[in-house]
Amino acid sequence: MISIVVPIKQVPDMERVKFDKEKGTVDRSSAPGEINPFDLNALEAAVQIKEKLGATVTTVSMGPPQAEAALRDALSRGADRGILLVDRAFAGADTWATSYTLASAIQRLGQTDLIVCGEKTVDGDTGQVGPEIAEWLDIPHVAYVSEIKNVGEKMVVVCDMEGDRYLMESRFPLLITVTKDINSPRLPSFSDKLKARKAEIEKCTAEELSAVADASRFGLKGSPTRLNKVIVPSEEGRKGEIFRGNPEETALRLADALKEGGLSENVK
Length: 268
Hints:
Rossmann fold, 2 domains, nine-stranded mixed β-sheet, two-stranded antiparallel sheet, 7 helices
């Protein structure tokens, strides 16, 4: 039976979330949390393999206690097990420290055949964590998978990169990151939601992970990335102006407007 791990992240509703410009962080308490949409595609891909070939699907998430809700949502969608990496020592992690912590948790689980990650997260949009997990574990990885062709002794997938489609084959263990084109995530049934509410969510602390990891690489102290400034772009709508008059006057007024807006330095 194939052993599959799906790392998931609870992200805030990006249309409602606020940013702490002083600290350079996202104020996650300012908006309700949900499973990162790309991770739902990863979970659906894993559950489809489980239904077709037989597999165990374990979801792992790193976050505060409220991230337990995301793991319960994953259980209602077909996952078999949910593990929450919860410890203040994990706070403030960049992609380097996050991937190291997740890789350490996966290593602690023992034999894992396949790791399925979402392409990226909507709150970070780097696409780095999945490939970095593979590097920490020293296993092959294939990014931007849009179709799974076959799962047998080897895995055959289609990945989309820079406008081209590639047919890729790899042995196990393997990590893939999937795009939103790979599937349409299922909606959980009411009975599955009720069952997930009663399920046990396993907790794992920094001390428990230290048996297989270097604790100095966790969280903020293990993060080489430093953010100097956060700028939230304004959401101004499109502006327009209508010039009326004779052609010569209109042309002069248009030239002045272009120069004032910095759109044409050569207008005289």
